[in-house]
Amino acid sequence: MSQIVLQDLGKTFPDGTVAVTGVSLVIPDGTLMVLVGPSGCGKTTVLRMIAGLEQATSGRIVVGERVVNELTPRERDVAMVFQNYALYPHMTVYQNIALSLKIRHAPREELNQRVREAARILGIEDLLKRRPRELSGGQRQRVAMGRAIVRHPQAFLMDEPLSNLDAKLRVQMRSEIARIQQELGVTTVYVTHDQTEAMTLGHQVAVIQNGELQQVGSPQELYRRPRNTFVAGFIGSPAMNLLEARLTRDDQGVAVVAGGSRLAVPDEVLAARQDLLSYLDRTIAFGIRPEDMEDAELAIAADDDAIVQVAVTHHEDMGSEMLLYFDLDAPPVFTQDIQGLAAEQGEDALRSLEEQAKSQRARVVARVGARSLARSGHPAAIYVDMRNAHFFDLSTGEAIYGDGDAVARPLSSTMERLREH
Amino acid sequence: MKGTDVEVMERAPEAQPALVIVPPSRAEVLRRRALAAAKEICWYLVVLTVCAFILLPVSWMLTAALKPDLAPIYTVTPQWFPSHAWNWNNFYRAMVYPLFPFLRYMINTLFVVFANILGILISCSLVAYPFARMKFRFREPLFYLLIITMLVPWQSLVVPQFFFFYHLGWYGTYLPLIVPAFGGNAFFIFLIRQYIRSIPKELDEAARVDGLNYFQIYWRIILPLSVPVLTVCAVFTFIWNWNNLLGPLLYLNNNNQFTIAIGLANMFQNSANSKTNLLMAANLLSMIPPAIVFLVIQKRLIGGIATLGLKG
Fold it and tell me: What is the pTM of this model?
């Protein structure tokens, strides 16, 4: 049990592919850190470098007190859970869990006791004599966890451990993993491409894209203060609506003009985001989460200057809430990052985004109260809670804050200390 | 059929058109069954013909082995069955014939065969594992070099090899027949390497994280999972060595050292009255061990791959 520090970690494969660049991350002792990002973003490579299965081409990896870059996986004393479990098919569950201890010549008594302890924690005591092929997906998952737990390692590394399970089991195992991690208090690095998993599981979440760290923070921080359009679009479901809009100032104050709609920017937002004023009369990326919109009929305090009139094209009644889809006559943000995010969701999503960009009409989703009377094919008035709106520089994708440090960086101080050594 | 349709419609005119399941007529059923039977018969005929081709000589050997010593064997109209007595006793006589110690040959052969299997399994898997899993300089060129050795015709190696072993002082011992197996075999190395490559790499990685070193991964993970391909190699080695005539002929010079192949070749050939019946009996007996090996192992040979089911 110990903290893990990654310092300017980089990996370039022999064929020239750059998988990871300059990743710096402090994972405090006992924390569950989730690395999340679209497939192929380098998150698994980071994990494999910590495990010692991949050599880092630059930077340092510190586990506990030791720089482990040059150590073999055997010497690093970390345990890993693989995506496809990687159970040894010719061994029983007991042998699978016991192997690492056996290799280290643990006394028979202790070995037996620790295997049973791990099995008890995972509730697989009655499976110990079976072989992996006789187990269900969830049981295999548990055995894979058991193999990690039994070692009492410095850290757990988990590489998309739930992605081979069906949806229901995934939710169950997710809370199971959270419980076990809590119980054992072992520093854990957890890799996933699923932002829901990241948000629900992580004490801290690190968003990675194209091998670069985008933002690290608690789930709430990432959700409330995304550092750039990528994090904004990646975290949250349904995703944040991102449109191109102009920031203007007229006699009624500062407002966002998106196509034909005008949305006043409240003073408190301007106070919190002082850099915003330097973007006056410029096109910015305007972001609003579906849950920060409401049917104006249902909104408690709907200011008139924060209401847009729309024609609902499509509605989804979820019972507890309703999703309204409508088009605004403003183009969607169509940067590389956003296209990448759409592509991650499938070819249809990307094609839809391309069409929206071509027709200069962005499709917007609002999550409104279940009692809303808005229906497909009918007009509706939508209240936009501008206090929770997000603003980004269109060319860099960076969030516009200007209240000192854009994003809290608890790791910078640790980094400084490390550099001094 | 139409009648039923109409009836349904009449009874419930407003209901949606009912789904009428039309059972096939009796004649249709019979026709289909006949067709299936005919197909099966044809299939059996083909298989039986092929079987006859293979088994005919063997059955001729059997009847020839059962004939008395002086009975003619190569008659112009082949005389299939012994005319007077069926001398099962011939099998026993073949085994204990003093000039040609059949059982001795058997034991010698089994010794050579199993020593070879041991050598092949150890050497080939040890070489194949790094070729399949480790990264090292010149891995590919070395592997191709290995493959190329398969192209060297064995005929061109016989004489130099003989002198080589002769000068080592191994002539007249089993060493030239056994030691080369411990040096590997290009074909088997290739076979095992391909198989190891099909074993998911995550297993190696999991083992490395679990703290196993390369040899432990080989010994505890790769080897047990390679049993199917190792079985194939063992069976091939068994058959090749069981049937190997040239090797023993070149290097062995003592009747008590001979293997079964060379023993059979010598048997009754040079004696004045060739006892073809005993020769045939001995031949048949020599076929038994390979047959047993095959019967015992065929399940493993075929079922091996299934043990690798990793994903759910």
Answer: 0.80
A306/A257 Cα distance (integer angstroms): 11
What span, in angstroms and rounded, lies between the C-alpha atoms of A183 and A172? 17
A392 in Cβ contact with A369 (< 8 Å):
no
Amino acid (1-letter code) at residue A377: G
The Cα A407–Cα A403 span in angstroms is 9
Q: Which two tokens stand for residue A118?
A: 């791990």
Cβ distance B213 to A74 less than 8 Å, yes or no, reads yes
C-beta separation of B162 from B250 below 8 A: yes
Question: Quick one: which H or E segment has residue B247?
Answer: helix B246-251
CA–CA dist B185, A386 (Å, integer): 75
Task: Report whether the peptide linkage leading into residue A238 is cis, meaning its omega lies within 30 degrees of zero.
Answer: yes
CB of A285 closer than 8 Å to CB of A392: yes
Catalogue the E-assigned strands of A167-265.
187-192, 204-209, 212-217, 241-250, 253-258, 261-264
Distance, CA of B258 to CA of B108 (rounded, Å): 7
Amino acid A215 reads Q
All residues of chain B having their beta carbon less than 8 Å from the beta carbon of residue A80 are: 205-206, 209
Instruction: Give the tokens for residue B206.
Output: 């999991």
Beta bridge partners of A25: A6
Q: Is B264 on the interface with A (CB under 8 A)?
A: no
Rounded distance, CA A327 to CA A243, Å? Answer: 11
Distance, in Å, from the CA atom of B152 to the CA atom of B141, rounded to the nearest integer, reads 17
Q: Do B307 and A133 touch (CB under 8 A)?
A: yes
A55: contact with B, CB 8 A cutoff? no
CA distances from B8 to A94, A382, B4, B20, B23 (A): 64, 56, 6, 9, 16
- Helices marked H in A150-189 — which ranges? 167-184
Q: Would you call B209 and A80 a contact, using CB atoms and an 8 Å cutoff?
A: yes
- Phi, then psi, of A155 in degrees rounded to 5: -155, 150
Among B134, B139, B209, which would you mutate to test the A interface (most chain A Cβ atoms within 10 Å of its Cβ)? Answer: B209
Going by the DSSP 8-state scheme, the letter that residue A228 receives in this structure is B
Cβ distance A101 to A151 under 8 Å?
yes
Shortest distance between the Cα of B218 and any Cα of chain A, in A, equals 13
Per-residue pLDDT of chain A (421 residues; tens, 9 = 90+): 689 999 999 999 999 999 999 999 999 999 999 999 998 899 999 999 999 999 999 999 999 989 999 999 989 999 999 999 999 999 999 999 999 999 999 999 999 999 999 999 999 999 999 999 999 988 999 999 999 999 999 999 999 999 888 888 899 999 999 999 999 999 999 999 999 999 999 999 999 999 999 999 999 999 999 999 999 999 998 999 999 999 999 888 899 999 888 999 999 999 889 889 999 999 999 999 999 999 998 887 767 788 999 999 999 999 999 999 999 999 999 988 888 888 888 899 899 999 999 999 999 999 999 999 999 999 999 999 999 999 999 999 999 987 654 444 444 445 555 555 4
Cα A206 to Cα A241: distance, rounded to the nearest angstrom: 22
Q: What is the DSSP string of A320-345?
A: SEEEEEEEESSPBP--HHHHHHHHHH
Neighbouring CB atoms inside 10 A of B227's CB total: 14
